[in-house]
Specification:
- With about 400 residues, this protein is an alpha+beta fold.
- It is built from 11 helices and 15 strands.
- The strands form 2 sheets. Strands 1, 2, 3, 4, 5, 6, 7, 8 and 9 form a 9-stranded mixed β-sheet that branches. A 6-stranded mixed β-sheet has the order 13-12-11-14-10-15.
- It is globular, with a radius of gyration of 22 Å.
- The N and C termini lie far apart (about 45 Å).
- The relative contact order is 0.14.
- Its EC number is 2.3.1.35, 2.3.1.1.
- Its main location: cytoplasm.
- It is found in: Cytoplasm.
């Protein structure tokens, strides 16, 4: 069984590095109790960059998310992002927007640029106002550096930063794409229940970046789930400052466009997988691949239904090959399914054969379920389309973490 991502690579994954022209920093100012944990950070481009974003569909969209969306939609340009953790500045009324705009202006003034070029991102506890004295203190301490501390400054219950850098050659120029994100709980993107930032020095043709991001988000971040909850704050923002000085990439330029989108997809996919793997209390990453679906939408729907099923997640945690839970999850969707000829494999081992239990050894299957990555392949026998989703198991520790989140 082969993951759909295991194809010939046109890009190279490299150690974390900022693309040409980007600076960043992260500091601790007291938003988090632990003095060893960064809680404010920022990202800066030496020149205004093309910008695109996707945003949570939760109706209680937080002030910083609304502000960033408004800012990007003005001219689709940004030169900086300022971020904080611990306090979401969500469901905070008119004061929430006042504070988000003040945070934006503080960062813009420190960077020496206009407020219309700065996005704002916050994450943490909903319903609490930003302590603006600490926000002001944090901005005053941030510098334009080459470190990666901003990748720590956005974490909440995450156990580690989530980062990736890739490089490709376009027109003899090295183009770098770097991404980082946070997300561990309240993960069920409709776009997207987390914070994600992808920056590149590639030069992108006008009007191409937003559709590129939206298309890739649908295949990556929107195909992960940890607990089925969509949060209020979250977004994915992409900046492209053009400092690699390549020929502008557009959909009309087949080879370069394909090369760039392959690397771009790899960045978003890796970040999405990292979030799923780091789900609160999780012990296993679960990948579901669906093939022979009637449509791509059907395939995506079935894959996400399986990784989102609490019964499937609990069975995987308990290392119980209860395939009926997978079949039930598939059947709950409105996808076109051949109910008499659906097959399922788990880590390459046949589990269901033409809608009947495969002849498998329970001990062998239980041993396969001890792996840290569980891969499920589903054949719907209804067409030629494929789909993919990622999630994690459901553990006792998930309940413990979320029962004491504000403690």
């Amino acid at each position: 069984m082969q993951s759909f991502l295991e194809e010939t690579k046109t890009y190279q994954e490299v150690p974390f590095t900022w693309p040409k022209g980007y600076k960043a920093d992260g500091v601790h100012v007291g938003l988090r109790k632990n003095p060893n944990k960064k809680d404010m950070g920022w990202l800066y481009s030496e020149v205004p960059a093309q910008a695109a974003g996707t945003y949570t569909t939760n109706q209680f969209q937080a002030a910083p998310t609304k502000l960033t969306k408004q800012t990007i939609n003005q001219d689709h340009l940004l030169q900086g992002m300022v971020m904080n953790t611990a306090v979401a500045n969500s469901v905070t009324g008119k004061q929430g927007m006042i504070d988000a705009k003040k945070m934006q202006k503080l960062a813009a003034d420190k960077m020496g640029i206009d407020s219309s070029l700065v996005g704002v991102a916050s994450t943490g506890v909903i319903g609490e106002n930003l302590p603006m004295d600490l926000i002001q203190k944090g901005v005053s301490q941030l510098e334009l550096l080459d470190n990666d501390l901003v990748t720590e400054a956005i974490l909440t219950t995450d156990t580690h930063p989530k980062t990736i850098s890739t490089q490709i050659e376009i027109d003899g120029k090295t183009v770098t794409i770097t991404g980082f994100c946070k997300g561990s709980g309240m993960i069920h993107p409709k776009m997207a229940t987390m914070l994600g930032f992808v920056v590149t020095d590639a030069k992108i043709a006008d009007g191409q970046l937003q559709p590129m991001l939206s298309q890739q988000v649908d295949k990556t971040f929107n195909q992960i789930t940890v607990d089925g909850d969509t949060s209020t704050n979250d977004m994915v923002v992409t900046l492209a400052n053009g400092m690699a000085d390549n020929t502008p990439i557009s959909m009309d330029d087949g080879d370069n466009f394909e090369k760039f989108t392959d690397a771009y997809n790899a960045v978003l996919t890796k970040l999405a997988q990292d979030i799923a793997e780091d789900g609160e209390g999780s012990t296993k990453l679960v990948e579901v691949n669906v093939e022979h679906a009637a449509t791509h939408i059907d395939a995506q729907k079935v894959a996400k239904a399986i990784v989102g099923s609490n019964l499937v997640k609990a069975a995987i945690f308990g290392e119980d090959a209860n395939w009926g839970r997978i079949i039930a999850a598939i059947g709950q969707t409105d996808a076109v399914i051949d109910v008499d000829h659906t097959s399922v494999w788990l880590n390459d081992l046949p589990l269901v054969d033409n809608s009947h239990s495969a002849d498998f050894d329970e001990n062998v299957m239980k041993d396969a379920l001890t792996d840290k990555k569980i891969t499920v392949l589903v054949d719907l026998n209804s067409g030629t389309a494929t789909g993919q989703a990622w999630g994690c198991d459901l553990t006792y520790n998930y309940v413990r973490i979320n029962a004491t989140y504000r403690s």
